[in-house]
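// run 5 | inverse folding | seed 20
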């Protein structure tokens, strides 16, 4: 899901309206889901497997909960990668926008804010292959004419009858024509070559392999340069004209992990990210972390910001928990 604060002047004419489309369906699950519905062309990165409508505003989405994945790898040796939660929110929201709210395939999605909160006990990996079930509530639906212009999606994620996490986000829907008008000359950077910076040691940011590291070393304490690896099949699922929002989520998670005294033993339980503008490919983006409160020598909560060309790209509050014993 892409990200930016404002789209174009026509957005000011949007008015709040209730969801339209077909009347509430029966309880049957819809399983005809393509990569286009979730904007993930590689099936290994597409997690929703079915969806159903409960009423005008409530839906359920079934999603894979993989024990092994090329990017969403286990954390601290026994926890599911918590960033799978905002990814299921992102993919589920786009699926519902297309399938339930009739947004045409090819339109763009712009995320304004995304946040989640998880219980460590629910993230403990097990041998079960059972899917997760996400209860979605879609509110604050806005339309431009008959077109969906945006909505807020709140999600409660359950697995094996237990609540794993809650999450919510605000997305705007943009026609391809409006997006091209918005981005203008920046579209010429689509698929451009970006120099791959050296990486922090994977263990310092909670990763196992260098390819997944999105931070480069910096002489400034608590600051790193964003490392853009356009060849990574999950982080850059297709050629893009800007840095995808999910890369910035990962950068915030890695920055908070690097800030910890025990990076290999931390699991990020809460994130709240607000996007301000696009992160461009042709200019350095700096990731800065500060403890909350400011004087905490080993903070559980860290404020992370992305800065590019003296402007804020995003701000994110990240909370982590030690991976000690958890009650099941």
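// decoded
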């Amino acid at each position: 899901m892409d990200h930016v604060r404002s789209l174009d002047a026509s957005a000011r004419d949007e008015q709040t309206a209730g969801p339209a489309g077909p009347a509430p369906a029966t309880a049957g699950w819809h399983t005809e889901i393509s990569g286009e519905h979730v904007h993930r062309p590689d099936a290994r990165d597409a997690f929703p497997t079915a969806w159903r409508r409960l009423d005008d505003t409530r839906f359920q989405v079934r999603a894979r909960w993989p024990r092994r994945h090329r990017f969403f790898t286990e954390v601290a040796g026994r926890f599911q990668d918590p960033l799978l939660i905002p990814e299921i929110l992102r993919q589920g929201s786009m699926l519902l926008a297309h399938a339930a709210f009739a947004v045409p395939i090819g339109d763009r999605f712009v995320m304004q804010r995304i946040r989640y909160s998880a219980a460590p006990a629910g993230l403990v990996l097990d041998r079960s292959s059972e899917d997760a079930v996400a209860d979605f509530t879609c509110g604050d639906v806005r339309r431009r004419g008959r077109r969906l212009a945006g909505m807020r999606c709140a999600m409660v994620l359950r697995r094996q009858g237990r609540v794993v996490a809650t999450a919510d986000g605000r997305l705007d829907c943009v026609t391809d024509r409006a997006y091209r008008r918005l981005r203008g000359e920046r579209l010429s950077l689509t698929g451009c070559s970006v120099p791959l910076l050296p990486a922090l040691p994977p263990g310092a940011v909670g990763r196992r392999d260098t390819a997944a590291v999105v931070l480069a070393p910096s002489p400034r304490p608590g600051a790193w340069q964003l490392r853009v690896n356009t060849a990574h099949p999950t982080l850059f699922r297709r050629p893009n004209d800007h840095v995808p929002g999910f890369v910035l989520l990962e950068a915030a998670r890695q920055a908070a992990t690097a800030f910890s005294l025990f990076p290999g033993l931390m699991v990020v339980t809460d994130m709240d990210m607000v996007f301000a503008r696009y992160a461009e490919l042709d200019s350095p983006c700096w990731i800065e972390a500060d403890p909350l409160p400011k004087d905490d020598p080993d903070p559980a909560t860290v404020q992370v910001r992305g800065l590019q060309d003296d402007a804020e790209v995003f701000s994110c509050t990240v909370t982590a928990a030690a991976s000690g014993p958890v009650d099941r």
